[in-house]
UniProtKB/TrEMBL annotation:
Gene3D superfamilies: 3.30.70.100, Rhodanese-like domain. The lineage of its organism: Bacteria, Pseudomonadati, Pseudomonadota, Gammaproteobacteria, Vibrionales. NCBIfam families: PRK00142.1-4. This is tRNA uridine(34) hydroxylase. Residues 124-218 form the Rhodanese domain.
């Protein structure tokens, strides 16, 4: 048995008092030494956490007793030798998975759930259009045979993809999947609202499929990106070969690390040339502190990389808005 249990959980449920739940949940996670991130919104809860198996079980029992409509909660377990998280976070959000369409409510309308055991038969039907609802960097690591890549960088782009590329008159049967099932709850609800009649999604997501379907029978190809320190898992739900570039936070391979544009903690082939000298200096200082912490047997926790990425995204958004206004 491995040392840590990793629990991916979510539930779409009305939580009008979600703001008041933040502190009790955060305090209970600290008490039980449960690390990771949970998101709370009016529409429910979502996140991934990790701890000793007994502590995860205690926390899930406590959480489901905290609010009666959180019981039962959907969760999937996997196991790892080391703790994949180093912080306790509980965040308040507008959505627990951000699509940006406020009218979509998976509690009212959702596609047809398909068990992992029935998934292969469904996606083998030539009349079924199979769509991977995840982001491009996730799909790059692995996907199902014959799945369509919508080439989205964020889930917010999915509605626009639907409007441009999908037609309820032409696409009579649509099947979709994601990592743990939560994005498909919203994407299938969205398609149903847009007039698509037969809409299916993989219950429990890729992780449940990999857990229940033997590799010899599997139609999954490659690795699955996960939102924790493992970065990706193979068909046995074990950590695979990928690491994160600590500059752009995208997954990288051992081959990427041999590339001339790779500098540990500073750049990789995917983000080389995207940062200015000041940002690169911050990355190098952060990496220096990481290595110094390692020599002391400590874990360095820094914020600079993610802060710079957020700032860069905001700058791009402002530039696009400015261009849009000028073109009017």
């Amino acid at each position: 048995m491995k040392n840590y249990t990793i629990c991916a959980l979510y539930k779409f449920v009305s939580l009008p008092n979600y703001v008041s739940l933040k502190d009790p949940i955060h305090n209970k996670m600290k008490e039980l030494q449960v690390f990771g991130t949970l998101l709370l919104a009016h529409e429910g809860i979502n996140g991934t956490i990790a701890s000793k198996d007994s502590n995860i079980k205690l926390f899930l029992k406590w959480l489901q007793n905290l609010e009666s409509n959180l019981n039962p909660i959907s969760y999937k377990l996997s196991y790892e030798d080391s703790q994949p998280f180093n912080r306790v976070k509980v965040k308040l959000k507008k959505e627990i998975v951000t699509m940006g369409v406020s009218t979509i409510d998976p509690k009212k309308t959702v596609g047809t759930y398909v068990k992992p055991q029935d998934w292969n038969q469904l996606i083998s039907d030539p009349d079924v259009l199979l769509i991977d609802t995840r982001n491009d960097y996730e799909i790059e690591l692995g996907t199902f045979e014959n799945a369509v890549n919508p080439n989205t960088k964020t889930f917010r782009e999915f509605p626009e993809y639907t409007k441009k590329h999908l037609d309820p008159k032409k696409h009579k049967k649509v099947a979709m999947f994601c990592t743990g099932g939560i994005r498909c709850e919203k994407s299938t609800a969205y398609l149903k609202e847009e007039g698509f009649e037969e809409v299916y999604h993989l219950e429990g997501g890729i992780l449940k499929y990999l857990e229940e379907i033997p590799s010899k029978e599997s139609m999954w190809q490659g690795d699955c990106y996960v939102f924790d320190g493992r970065v990706s898992v193979n068909h046995n739900l074990e950590k695979s070969i990928h690491d994160l570039c600590h500059a752009c936070r995208l997954p990288i391979t051992p081959e990427d690390k041999q590339h001339e544009h790779y500098e540990q903690g500073v750049s990789c082939p995917k983000c080389f040339g995207q940062y200015n000298s000041e940002q690169l200096a911050k990355f190098r200082e952060r990496e220096k502190q990481v290595q110094l912490a390692k020599t002391r047997g400590e874990e360095h926790i820094g914020h600079d990389a993610q802060k710079i990425i957020t700032e860069r995204k905001e700058l791009k958004k402002r530039q696009k808005e400015k261009q849009r206004m000028l073109s009017k």
